[in-house]
Design brief:
The protein has 439 residues and is an alpha/beta fold. The chain contains 13 helices and 21 strands. It has helices at 12-18, 38-45, 54-69, 87-95, 105-113, 130-139, 149-161, 197-207, 229-248, 274-285, 298-301, 334-338, 349-352; strands at residues 23-26, 30-33, 36-37, 49-53, 76-80, 99-102, 121-123, 143-146, 166-173, 195-196, 213-219, 255-257, 291-294, 305-316, 321-325, 344-346, 357-362, 371-377, 385-388, 409-414, 417-422. β7 (121-123), α6 (130-139) and β8 (143-146) form a beta-alpha-beta unit. The termini are far apart. Mean pLDDT is 93; it is low at 1-8 and 181-188.
């Protein structure tokens, strides 16, 4: 494809696009994803619309496997489906060799519907209901990550009552702070997740005495949007000390679930140092016969998706210039929830040739928090298209119909062909399942 003549300009949107291999400019068609013009998708399917790159999903899955293979490691990959639970996404990752990390009966059923064997699933979460545990045990779940002594006792009782044995890993809270935001840090002593480090060895020994349980090892997850591997190494080193202690005392530990949380750059910065992380894992595991599990979510799917939106209108005030999109916090909640900032780029070649000016990009929802952030963008008139980048994770999965706004369509580009993988919700479908009691 031919680059647009202005690509050499050092504008923020050009740098963002240059950092993303799936995106490219075309002199006539504007911004393309996997060589498919996004303007054409908007013309056919309207906006807002989620658009995903199957090629990016495949390449990131292969890169993840390749970096570990280079270190002589073959971790079991259990994709955290909360990031994006669409059946088409799950099916692509399953075909690439991923299992699933699930947190509810709904996620379990989705993963199974996508063809993922329950034996290749990890069941996580602090609030598993009894019926969810029963479902998992009876289906032959590969691993249940246990979050407390109370949950361990419940799992044992449910398994015994059915004459089954549940494979369990104790999730350790190593009291290590990590993550890009307070609300996505999960490994501190004050977080709700996991078992206190000092209690874990004794609880594991106790689990080994309980009928109905097969303790296999430990798991941890210290947060999300992590870029420094030092936090991982600190947490893993503490847990490996427990594993060594238990193995030396004759209580076997055969598996270590390393969790996930690998960060992605939402700007044009440097990504997670995956080669260094894999090398660190090999180094600290040296001399131990441990199976390993990893639970990536965002790292796999976020760069594969964009949210395609249209400018509804612009609004100039004494305080600021506002660009109002037809996509808002009902579609992409992360900016309102976490103060997250996604890159935004123009789709049209004409707009992309303009010079930047500061503006506030906001959505249409009647909430002050419905804002994407402050950006340097070219002049955007009503009707102009923009792409909100790296929206493949925690985008559609978190979306809602707040303010009576239907769920957006979803399109997957696979080998140059766009496929609708979810139709846009109609207005009438908003109340389809509501029931008015008789007067």
């Amino acid at each position: 494809m031919n680059d647009a003549p202005d690509l050499a300009r050092d504008q923020p949107w050009h740098r963002l696009i240059a950092a993303r291999p799936a995106l490219a400019w075309h002199a006539m068609d504007g911004l393309c994803l996997d060589d498919v013009p996004l303007a054409g998708i908007a013309a056919r399917h309207a906006t807002p619309t989620w658009v995903y790159s199957a090629a990016t999903l495949r390449s990131r899955m292969a890169a993840l496997q390749g970096e570990f293979a280079a270190q002589g490691l073959t971790p079991a990959i259990r994709y955290a489906i909360k990031a994006n639970d669409h059946l088409a996404i799950l099916s692509l990752l399953r075909a690439g060799g991923a299992g699933a990390d699930v947190t509810s009966a709904g996620e379990f059923a989705r993963a199974a519907a996508a063809g993922i064997d329950p034996a290749a699933m990890v069941y996580s979460g602090v609030g598993k209901r009894a019926e969810e545990i029963i479902q998992a045990i009876e289906a032959g779940i590969g691993q249940i990550n246990v979050e407390s002594a109370e949950e361990l006792a419940m799992i044992a009782a449910l398994a015994r009552a059915r004459d089954r044995t549940a494979p369990v890993a104790l999730r350790i809270n190593p009291d290590v702070a990590a993550g890009g935001h307070d609300k996505i840090s999960t490994g501190r002593a004050t977080d709700k997740f996991g078992i206190a480090y000092q209690d874990t060895a004794a609880l594991y020994r106790h689990a080994a005495t309980l009928a109905g349980l097969r303790p296999v090892g430990f798991s941890t997850h210290i947060g999300s949007q992590i870029f420094e591997i030092a936090s991982y190494e600190a947490a893993y080193t503490r847990i490996l000390a427990l594993i060594d202690e238990l193995n030396a005392a004759g209580t076997p530990v055969t598996m270590f679930d390393l969790g996930g949380g690998f960060g992605i750059p939402y700007d044009d910065g440097i990504g997670f140092p995956l080669p260094a992380y894999a090398a660190m894992v090999r180094r600290i595991l040296a001399g131990r016969d441990l199976g390993i599990v990893i639970e990536p979510g965002r790292w796999l799917v976020a760069p594969a998706g964009i949210l395609l939106a249209r400018v509804t209108l612009t609004k100039a005030t004494e305080a600021d210039d506002f660009v109002i999109l037809d996509a808002g916090m009902n579609d992409l909640l992360r900016p309102a929830l976490y103060d997250a900032v996604h890159g935004i780029v123009p789709v049209g070649a004409v707009e992309a040739s303009g010079w930047p000016r500061a503006c506030e990009v906001v959505g249409p929802v009647c909430e002050s928090s419905d804002r994407f952030g402050r950006y340097d963008l070219p002049p955007l008139a009503p009707g102009a298209l923009v792409a909100v980048l790296d929206a493949g994770a925690y985008g559609a999965a978190m979306s809602s119909t707040y303010n009576g706004r239907p769920l957006a369509a979803q399109v997957l580009i696979d080998r140059g062909q766009p496929h609708v993988i979810r139709m846009r919700q109609s207005i009438e479908q908003l109340w389809r399942d509501e029931i008015i009691p008789p007067a």
